[in-house]
Design a protein that fits this description.
Helix content is 30%, strand content 21%. By secondary structure, it is an alpha/beta fold. The chain has a domain of 344 residues: FAD/NAD(P)-binding domain (3-Layer(bba) Sandwich), CATH 3.50.50. The strands form 3 sheets. Strands 5, 6, 11, 12, 13, 14, 15, 18 and 19 form a 9-stranded antiparallel β-sheet that branches. A hairpin with a 5-residue loop joins strand 16 and strand 17. The relative contact order is 0.20.
């Protein structure tokens, strides 16, 4: 594997390769490695660097179109997203969460993974634009393959809750193979493996997809960096894997040959944008926290000498969804940190952000035992810690106390002081044509029009959240379990008063379809009417269920990689491939 930056390439150079992939996130890197393994020359073009940085973060700006939002909506988004995406700001990214850098969204995710339910693929008369052109059976081998890539357990725990309207649902957490106490970061994992045949070009933002004059093929990509260096990439095949927002933006902005944008004869590019909606439904009384956390908390399942991390929640039964015309939705039970949590107080003090210094100092002093324990766990995860000793300690902990390992994992190795347990809901969003990514008249530093998100939450989503809350209340009570204090809009049965936020799972902007009238890519993720352009990532998913989508995104990416390999070898049998080293045009003597 070779990694370079665009600054090390001659200005105006033409880079040639077999397969050019736009975006170094989990989908792009998975396709790259699987194709390179079969002798295909691959160039991954990543806008950012190895890690996120402030300069490239400025390219992530997303404008939010006019829409009504409650006053607390912006604060709720900031509280939810800023904890994981360190450089993100609600002012710059009015919708969604985008990360530039090797590994893409996995630089800021929590590792939470789950498969879609069978109902998520189905044509549902009560859900507009539902139905996949690919069956669950066709995807099943690729789902297994993606689960292995994510280091997930193949065995799901047995249901812990028996009801008629609610069913047990399990999320699993993707653990790093490189750092035992962190989630999987695809950039770090790729660097550790260093697979042969994959070239990576960093600090290289694609500014235009250049079509051949007849519009039936992509001829090349224009790339640029923030310093003004430019180049062109030519390939036999191209894959857009730059996020649901960026994929649509690039197709729309590349309009010199196709005036409406590439793959957009029926005005479908950017439309049917969906996300997962999150809302807090309530919280449990302190005396019930321990009991509910044991049943629905975060725990470890031993498998083949490792502890796999699961979270148990409750989902709406498919029969109820059909009977009442509801969307797919679920709840999970989230620990709440105490206001005097010593780790949070220490971080405020160290960063000079404490608004009550004396109180934070007192919290740190009172929580000294918790801090010492956390420092020990952090020392265990440090690269200087002897590998043999680390392996022994972690394996012993897994065997003796998988729940303890899971608890450390969920907190990033920092044990926090907790004060409660909240009930959090997530629901799918119905695909609506007017929810979309469009182009703003404003442009970024590289001259590309900014994306504008027109995104609204409908009454069907709000009604689903209310129905979910009420079913959870009656279901827990019928099982002789404690019920939470519900939010006021639930108690008053006013779903319009709910203020759900986007959960940064943007999907659907280049959806799969059998016909170009209803989507952008075909069932093999090829852009309708463009022979050598494919799209990967959440943008191709027609519907999103309620499950965190990375597992499904990787399953579809694995299927696309197999398709690309087949097409490459078919073309190789007919003519000499477009093969050459993508980094052969390196300027001399520039070294990065």
């Amino acid at each position: 594997m070779r990694i370079d930056r665009l600054s090390a390439v001659k200005h105006g150079a033409v880079l040639k390769t077999d397969l050019a992939i736009v975006g170094g996130g989990p989908a792009g890197l998975t396709i790259a490695e699987q194709c390179a393994r079969h002798g295909i020359a691959v160039l991954v073009i990543e806008s950012g660097l190895e890690q996120q940085d402030h300069d490239h973060e400025a390219l992530n700006e997303v404008q939010l179109g006019p829409c009504d939002r409650p006053a607390e909506w912006h604060g709720a988004r900031t509280a939810f997203h800023a904890g994981l995406a360190e450089l993100w700001s609600a002012e710059r990214q009015g919708y969604g969460v985008r990360c530039r850098g090797l590994g893409g969204s996995t630089q800021a995710w929590a590792g939470k993974s789950a498969c879609f339910d069978p109902i998520d693929y189905a044509r549902r008369p009560w859900v507009e634009a539902s139905g996949w052109p690919v069956s669950p059976a066709e995807l099943q081998p690729f789902i297994r393959q993606a689960g292995d890539l994510l280091n997930l357990c193949p065995n799901e725990p047995s249901p812990r809750f028996a009801g008629t309207d609610l069913v047990s649902f399990y999320w699993q957490f993707s653990r790093s193979r490189v750092e035992r106490l962190d989630v999987m970061r695809f950039g770090r994992e790729l660097l550790a493996r260093s697979p042969p045949g994959v070239d990576v070009l960093l600090d290289a933002t694609v500014t235009r997809i250049a079509l051949a004059p007849d519009g039936t093929r992509v001829a090349s990509l224009d790339v640029a960096n923030l310093a003004g260096r430019r180049a062109r990439v030519e390939a036999a095949h191209f894959v857009l894997a730059a996020s649901a927002i960026e994929n649509a933006r690039l197709l729309l902005a590349s309009n010199d040959v196709a005036p409406a944008g590439i793959g957009n004869p029926y005005d479908n590019v950017g439309r049917y944008m969906i996300d997962h909606l999150g809302a807090s439904l309530g919280a449990f009384e302190p005396q019930h926290v321990a009991r509910m956390a044991r049943l629905f908390g975060f725990y470890g399942v031993p498998h083949n000498g490792k502890s796999h991390m699961f979270m148990h929640g409750l989902a709406l039964a498919p029969e109820l969804q059909e009977r009442e015309g509801l969307l797919n939705a679920a709840v999970y039970f989230a620990p709440q940190r105490a206001p005097d949590d010593p780790w949070d107080a220490l971080k405020r003090l160290l960063k000079g952000r404490s608004s009550a210094t004396a109180r934070d100092i007192a919290s740190v002093a009172k929580g000294s035992g918790t801090l010492v324990r956390g420092m020990g766990v952090k020392a265990l995860s440090a690269p200087q810690f002897p590998g043999v000793m680390k392996e022994l300690i972690v394996n012993s902990a897994i065997r003796l106390s998988p729940n303890m390992v899971a608890a450390e994992f969920s907190s990033g190795g920092l044990p926090h002081k907790l004060s409660g347990l909240s009930l959090e809901a997530v629901t799918e969003q119905e695909p609506q044509r007017d929810n979309r990514i469009a182009l703003s008249p404003d442009r970024d530093r590289l001259g590309v029009p900014l994306p504008r998100a027109d995104w609204r939450v409908g009454m069907k989503e709000r009604r689903t959240l209310l129905a979910l809350a009420r079913r959870v209340g009656t279901g827990l009570a019928s099982a002789d379990l404690p019920t939470p204090r519900f939010a006021s809009w639930i108690e008053s049965k006013e779903p319009a008063a709910a203020g759900p936020i986007d959960l940064a799972h943007t999907m659907g902007t280049t959806r799969m379809s059998l016909h170009p009238r209803s989507g952008v890519v075909d069932r093999h993720c090829r852009v309708h009417g463009v022979a050598n352009l494919h799209i990967a990532g959440g943008s191709v998913l027609p519907t999103g269920g309620h499950a965190n989508p990375t597992w499904m995104i990787l399953a579809v990416a694995c299927r696309l990689a197999a398709r690309l390999r087949d097409e490459y070898f078919q073309a190789e049998a007919c003519s000499k491939p477009h093969r050459s080293s993508a980094t052969a045009q390196l300027a001399d003597p520039v070294v990065q």
